[in-house]
Specification:
alpha+beta; Beta-Lactamase; HATPase_C_sf; about 475 residues; histidine kinase; phosphorelay sensor kinase activity; phosphoprotein; transferase
Amino acid sequence: MYTNLLFQSFFYLSDNFLMIIDSDGNFKKVNDKWKELGFSKEELIQTPFVNLIYPEDQAETKNFIAADEFSNTASELKNRLVSQDGDILLIKWRFLKIDSTEDIIAIGKDISDQTRQQLTYEAFTKDLKEKSKKLEDLFELSEDLIVIANADGYFKKVNPKWIEILGYSEAELLSTPFMEFIHPDDRSKTTTMVRKQMEGTTAIKFENRYQTKSGESVWLEWNATSVDQTGDIFAIARNTTAQKKQKIREQATLKEVRAKNKQLEDFAYITSHNLRAPVANIAMLTKFLEETQLSEEQEKLTKLLTDSTRILNQTLHDLIEVIQIHNKDNTKLVEVSLEKIVKEVTNQLSGEIMSSKAEITTDFSDVSIVRYSEIFLRSIFLNLISNALKYKSPDRKPVINITAKRLKNSIQLTFSDNGIGIDLEKYKNQVFGFKKTFHNNIDAKGLGLFMTKSQIEALNGTIKVSSTLEKGTKFTINLNL
């Protein structure tokens, strides 16, 4: 009786699934654990055990029970139970036949969480191995120089790029204090940076020079950080030697160009100023000649001389104007009203505007005041408006439209007209050239657009042109803020 009571207590209080089934697999008795599947005991007693098994596991479970291999010793089986809500539990069973009966007692332990944890661990381990393999591949194949260094000042691990760039063997790189590979002039700042990294600072785009085994200097740009409390430093360096050399060449070229430009400006300035007096004297002498009695042949020669002197004098005047573009007084920035500039320029060109019946419209609603060189701005407006009048179409009244628009980092001015246009396919690279003209206009000097572009670029702006023959031209200017 005591044994039976003990069995009953264990059967109903156990935290595992307990059941007694007959040899056909029909439930005869179940404990309260089965309620977790959502079925009542009455429902279970009327249902074959195998019907609660996940479909893919049913055949194996049937065969296991039919085999009757657990008469003397307990046998184990794993299968999946399906709850009334469709949840799936993985159960590990132990089956044993009850003495002198055909009934079977079975105890099942829910190992779902344990299995999930195992699967999660295995998946995590697999993922970690895959990531480690990828990191190792990255380390080995990277075009950058990757290194792990310790707090004692030695490299612990270097990738093959170090050997390729510096020319040392891996053994040499790992057995020598890394400071000895650094250019002597850069050791002090590198020591400071290493100390900061050990204190927790991350190095971003830190630059120093390493020396190769053959004695050449290699520029490296570093991103580095301390890994953990061990003081180890993980760092990636990009070889910037080619860019550095290119930058040095560009700086040297720029310095040389500036020096030559200064020489040319000085030469042009001295030459133009020194020639003005002789040219003025020639002009005066030709005037005296014109006032004397000359033969017909002499008059022709005098006229040629007068024309040549006038052209030479104008060229000198233009040259001086170009030279003075970079004059500090000319590039002084002030607040300038666009309406005021337009009014001044249209007053200056009033004769041409009236005779051609030109219509000039403006839209400065977005921006009406700009901070710019007033001298340059007046010159730009004068050149572009006078150009539009000069190259108007004989078939229609000139219409010139000027707008101003505020962009993110600039003010955009546009000058558009309905004139004869420019053949950009033919003259695209000459539009802003010095003394370049594109029409048979006797007033064209080829200086206005050159001056305009030079003045705009002197203050880091840009100018572009678009044009269609017989339809008109549009100039787009961006003035840097």
